[in-house]
Amino acid sequence: MAGDDFLLPEGFLVGAATSAHQTEGGNLASDWWAFEQREGAPVAEPSGDAVDSYHRWPQDMDLLRDLGLNAYRFGIEWARVEPVRGRVSRAALDHYARMIDGALERGLEPVVTLHHFTSPAWFTEAGGWTAPGAAEAFADHVRTVAPLLADRVRYACTINEPNMLAVMHTLLDRGLDAAPAHGHIEPDERVAAGLTAAHRAAREALRAELPGLRTGWTVANQAYQALPGAEQTAAAYARPREDAFLEAAAGDDWIGVQAYTRTRIGPDGPLPVPEGAETTLTGWEYHPRALGEAIRHTAEATGGGVPILVTENGIATGDDGRRAAYIREALHSMAEAMRDGIDVRGYLHWSALDNYEWGSYRPTFGLIAVDRATFTRTPRPSARLLGEIARTRRIPAAGSEEPAPTP
Predict the structure, then answer these.
(1) Which positions make up the signal peptide (predicted)?
(2) Known active-site residue 161
(3) How confident is the model at residue 402 (pLDDT cuts 50, 70, 90)?
């Protein structure tokens, strides 16, 4: 973004995101917990206690409030609420009700996710998203938690990254060894259809119970970039892996953009990270402007009529200076899209805390560092940078190179 600073609209959400399984710890009734414990599971380490946010959420929210952020995306874990089919845990419902109240008391807008990759073990053992009655089972869960959201939550996400969930099923069916080197796997069609049906059933259940609630889902955006002559190849890759899920958001109240890096496409398909390019701890190319590209593509794919929330955007790095630089440039690209008339309502950084990244604690995405031995939380300078943007609603112009606030 060149020129003047960009002033975010009044009421714009600037915050951070987490998921239940990745932060809470001890999610014993979930399918992912069972997967992690399985002999030979392809995980470097199980989630275990995660970062103990199930007990330390008040401290986490205090830190976000004190940093100046105004929103927090977190999840309600289905496996805790309904650990056995048809048996609801009142203690779990009370826990999540207190979390929602706690966010509001601290001036944090609660953006609540109802499914973030993990399901109850009983649901998966019964066939998961392709089983008869799967959509209704999820809608029943949504109806169970709806009273927690009433008159307190404005934004609810039904399902996080359904395209990645469907990809995971393809991987599990074919085996990890069958994955292509570029990693861009086609989603399982039956699982994708089941997730879409579940999303729509949940959306209608929430609208019936809570007419004022804004519902949507989030999509993992790849920011496909076609090299000259590869436009049709790029479209063929984007269609099943991203666009079908974006188009399914037609009629939703919002759509979540989740972007981290770009994917270059040549005539024969995805290309490796350019030689010499900076990469992150996940091996992804450092490319913060992927956010603006993903926002523009999402607006185009949804016809421009669905408001956008950036529900995830961030970088796994041990160098917080690079995280701060990434945040600045990503927000510049978001501001450019907003200046061009795209309706973006919020930016939620991934992640609030260092957490369990689906097999390992090594990739550190957090605005707040977490000591794994003591659970001590330490805000990084990048967190103070984002907090300053939240307080002032001002995205400094590109090239201003303002340093991140010191600890």
Answers:
(1) none
(2) yes
(3) low
